[in-house]
Amino acid sequence: MRFKLPQKNQTAWALLFLSIFSMTLQGLVFHSTLLSKLLMPWLMYFSFLVVLRPYASATFVFLLECLLVRIHLMKLALTNTPFEVEDIFAWKQALFLKSYSDWVIPLMVLGLIICVVKGFSLRKRQWVFFPVFILLSVSCVQESHPTEIQTNPVSYLFRLARVTYVDWNLVTNVKENGIFNHVFLTLSMGGVPAKGSLPYKDTSATASVFLDKDAPDVFLVLCESCYTSSNGNFITPISKIEEQGYSYATVVSPVYGGMTAEAEFEVLTGLPSRRHKGIDFQYYAEKYSGDAKAVPRVFADHGYDTFSAHANVGFFWKREIVHPKFGFHQSYFVDDIKGAERGKYAEDRILFDSVLSKYKANLKAGKKTFGFLITVYTHGPYPDVNGDGGEQAYKDKVEKTTQQFLDFQTAAAKLAASRNRPIVFVIFGDHKPAMTVSFYKRHEFNDDYFTLTGSRNESFRFADLDKAQQIVFGKVPMYAKGYGLGNSSLISEFVKKMEERPLFCLPALIAADIGVREAFFQYSTDVCRKDPEALVDLKVLGQYYPEAVYADRLFK
Predict the structure, then answer these.
(1) Looking at residue 466, what DSSP letter applies?
(2) What DSSP element (H or E) covers 91?
(3) Percentage of residues in the chain having pLDDT higher than 70
(4) CATH code of the domain in which 492 resides
(5) Does residue 371 come out as left (phi exceeding 0), alpha (psi in the -120 to 50 range) or beta?
(6) What residues are paired with 482 via a beta bridge?
(7) 52 with 90, same domain?
(8) Do residues 16 and 136 both lie within one domain?
(9) DSSP state of 504
(10) Has residue 109 been placed in a domain?
C-alpha cells in the first residue's frame, strides 16, 4: 500500500510532521524533548513558506537541523568543542576537513538542494507568510550585533517560552535548547565590535610622568565564590580580613552563582561585561588583538612584570589564549603549579606558595610586580549537612582560603619590606556562591526577587530585578591594604570610591591612586563617580561604553 501525504491543509500537516520528526531527533540524540526546542524550527518553516511548498519547507528545515546536529556531533568528537555560529562563516576552511566526513553529510546537502529545486513556488497566497520572514530576519540581525543588547521579537518569544541560554557551557546549550535555538542564541559570536569615535582621547595622546620609585607592587586576588554580607545576615570567615587592617567595601559583580570569567573580564579590562552577551572570554578569545589594551598590558607598559596564576586548567574559559593577549608576560596554570592536580579543587595554599616564589625572583631581579591570582578551593558544590544547604561546608572552605591568603600576604609584605618596596593587596569575591536557598532563608533576597521559589537552589527563578535589586544581587566583598606607601590614606580613599561600584571600576580607580596614568582609565574614573544605580543600567552603560570603546581596547 502506497503512502500518500494529505493534500488538504498541507501547511498544518507539514508543520505537524516537522514537529514530530524534530522532537524525535532531539529525543534520540540528546534525550531531551522540550517543546521550546520547536520555536526556531517553526519560525524557519513559516519563513521558507514564502518560496517553498509546505512539505518541501518542512523537509528542508528538518534536513538542515539534521545536518547541523551531525556537524555538531562530529566537531564535538574531534575537537571537544560544540558547533558555533562562526563555523558557518568559516565554511571554506571546513572544506579542508572533508576527509573527516562521511556519506551522510553529502546526502543531506543533496536532499536540501532537491527540496529547493522541487519545492520552489511563488504564489500570491504565500505572501501571507512574508511578515514571519521579516520578523525572523530582523531578529537575527539585531541578535547578531555583538554588544547592543536589545529585545527583538524572537528573543521575546524565547523569554515567554522560558528558553534559558546556557552561556557557561555551549555543549549543554545545544542539548537543552536544540541546534536552531542554539544558533540564534549565539549569533553574536559571528562578529566583533566595530571601530568608531571614542568618548576619550586616544591613549597615545596622553603623556604623564610616572614616578618609578613610588609605584607599588600590586596583587589582585579573585576569590572564587567568596562572600560575606554587609548586613549581618550571612557572615562568613572572609570578614576576618578586615580585622587585619584591611579596608572593606561592598562592590558589585556582574554575575551570580557562577560565570567567573565575566567578573574576571571586568577586572582585567575595566569594561562592563554586561554590555556583551554571554561569556566574553569564550566568545572572543581567538579574536582579541594580540596587544589588547587590557589592564595587565597597561601595567606592563609602565614597567611592571605581569603574571597570572590559577590552579586549574588553562583551557577553562580559554584563559590560556586570553591572558597573553591581555598583556600577562607569564600565566601559570595547573601543570605549572607544584601540588596542583587536574580535576581537583586544591587548597589555595599551593597557589599562594607558587606566587610567593615568583615574587621572590622578581624582587631579586629588581622588577616591579603586577600579579593576578584566581583561587579555586572555595568552588562549589557544597555538601549539605543536616539540611543546612551546604553552609557549613562553604564556610569551612572560605575560612581555610582566607587564612592561607593572610599567610601569603604577610610573607609577601615581609619580602617587599626587605627590598624597600611598597606593595598593595586587593582581594575580592567574583560572585556570590550558588546558595540561593540559604540567601532566601537568611533574607538576603526576599520574595520580590523571584517568580518561583522552592526547597532547592534549582527551584528558584529570579524576576526582572530593578536597579536597587541588581546591586544587592551582585554584591560581593572587597578588601584592600597597602604596605610602605608614601600616602597612608591612599588605600582607604580607593576603597571608599569603590563602595557599591561595579568591578569594572576597580582598575581605573586603583590605577589613578598608585600613579598609573592612561586616557581610558582617566575617563572611566569620571564615569565611576556616577550613582551606583546608574552603573548597573544597561542604557547608561551603552552611553558611556559604546561599541567603539570595546573595539579600540580589545580588537585589532
Answers:
(1) -
(2) helix 91-94
(3) 91
(4) 3.40.720.10
(5) beta
(6) 424
(7) yes
(8) yes
(9) G
(10) yes
Of 138, 156, 190, the last residue of a domain is 190
Residue with cell string 557544597: 382
- Is the domain of 363 the same as that of 456? yes
b/e map 242-252, b = 16+ CB within 10 Å: eeeebbbbbbb
Q: Are 519 and 201 in contact (CB under 8 A)?
A: yes
Instruction: Phi first, then psi: give them for residue 509, nearest 5 degrees.
Output: -70, -40
pLDDT reading at 194 higher than 90 = no
Domain count, the chain: 2
pLDDT digits (tens, 9 = 90+) for 468-486: 999 999 999 999 999 999 8
Strands 475-483 and 247-252 turn out to be: antiparallel
pLDDT for residue 182 is more than 90: yes
Range from 107-116, 346-355, 450-459 carrying the lowest mean pLDDT: 450-459
Pick the closest to residue 401 from 171, 142, 173, 224 (CA basis).
Answer: 224
Distance CA 469, CA 456 (A): 21
209: in domain: no
Domain assignment of residue 332, given as a range: 214-554
Res 94: pLDDT: 54
- Map 180-244 to HEC letters: HHHHHHCHHHHCCCCCCCCCCCCHHHCCCCCCHHHCCEEEEEEECCCCCCCCCCCCCHHHHHHHH
Q: Please state, in angstroms and rounded to a whole number, the distance separating the CA atoms of residues 170 and 157.
A: 21
Do residue 180 and residue 227 come from a single domain? no
418 and 379 part of one domain: yes
> Is the domain of 160 the same as that of 288?
no
Residue 30 main-chain phi, psi, to 5 deg: -110, 0
Cα distance between residue 457 and residue 475, in whole Å: 19
The residue with cell 500537516 is 13
- Distance (Å, whole) CA 362 – CA 466: 47
Q: Is 215 in contact with 303 (CB distance < 8 Å)?
A: yes
Same domain as 342, residue 269: yes
Give the dihedral sign, CA 417/423/428/430.
Answer: negative
* Helix and strand element counts for the chain (H, E): 23, 9
Half-sphere exposure of 361 (CA within 13 A, CB side): 9
C-alpha 91: how far from its chain's center? Answer: 26
Question: Does any domain span residue 208?
Answer: no
- Using DSSP, state whether 330 is helix, strand or coil: strand
> Which position has the grid cell 545545544?
174
Q: 118 and 52, same structural domain?
A: yes
Q: Which of 155, 175, 190 is the last residue of a domain?
A: 190
